[in-house]
């Protein structure tokens, strides 16, 4: 649909990079969640286009503006690094006026850029984030219908609004703009310190730098407990040094162990500097200091290396996860989950997997179809669209071809012919069993029908015989007595009456034969019809 064309490249890249790839089902469920965000983004983009601001306020422009601000900040810090110096009176100045004036211009550009990014984010992304938060509130209340915002309550609206205001990216852009404003207030001389912090924007823009931060943030509990243990052990060393006579140096200027607090600070400083021993703190009596130095080396070196090891292991784990994501993206079909090795090469030598992903299971074709379902009226759905819509509303993956591919069906069957034979045998056994059951049902049904029809014919025969008997009895009663001689006229009348009765009987028998022929023909046709209908067809009506 035309609405799907307004999905930004940034949103598509976010889907491919951040979708949950722990399993095929989790991947597709997260994919459907992203399509809901696409729908909200498309609707909001249409609203912006209606007021004629779509060229300026778009997610693509927002992304470009953030990179422009980053480059401007890098230029500011480069100029400060090469030109900023301290005079004799401790005043910070630039080497020349050109560098100073250029820094002032770049500070103004940085403020304008950060402000524009903040406005763009509020106009382009904040409404989408609000409706996503509102949808989560509805799901928490058990309303799984997508985009049913008309069913929200005031409490849902308040919670969604608070979640939008506390959005991490919105808070980040607000802090960035505030730091840029303070920097231009302080000027190029004193604002260089704040501009240096804005270089951390690279963490938001690059996944590798994010992994560096996550390497420390993810195992924060283990690192915190190790640091706490280090603090306690440092205090134990400080008290031991403080209470042992002959170990202290003669320094009492606050850098030695004249107090237990100063002794603790001095010991902690030695730990932070990763000194090889406590020689700077205690006397040079090797006999007394050797055991202490050995304990210090064993304890603190081990503790510090444990902290470094936790960070390094976490970073390696994050790097492995990233490598797995790249491998899944390049070697596994996003839709069906089949691996690259499951596909044969094409006739031209190219990979069948690439042709499969480019022609059969194209991710964005599925996105377009889902957008088509959501953008059309529910009353216009045909059978397939109605089924897919219900699956989307109930988060059901039955409509997606998980583990199936048209290009791979023939290859899979050819690779295992015995499996193919077993499948056909199972199908034939099932068919024969169904036919037998249908035959039993048909035989039972039509035996009842034939018995009912025979009963009806017997009743008709009985009535017919009764009528014949009624016709023959008067004829016998009208015949002359045996003693009286028969006249030719009387015999002729009797023969005529008996001939009529014989003709009626033959006609009746012929009519009965035709009835039985029709009965057998209709019974055969009814059996065929009943078998075709699954054995539950209605009996043939006379």
From TrEMBL:
Primary localization class, coarse: membrane
Key words, A-Z: Membrane, Transmembrane, Transmembrane helix
Residues passing through the membrane, by range: 65-84, 105-133, 170-187, 223-243, 296-315
The protein, known as: Ion transport domain-containing protein
GO molecular function, one term: monoatomic ion channel activity
GO process terms (BP): calcium ion transport
Species of provenance: Phaeomonas parva
One cellular-component annotation, GO: membrane
Taxonomic superkingdom: Eukaryota
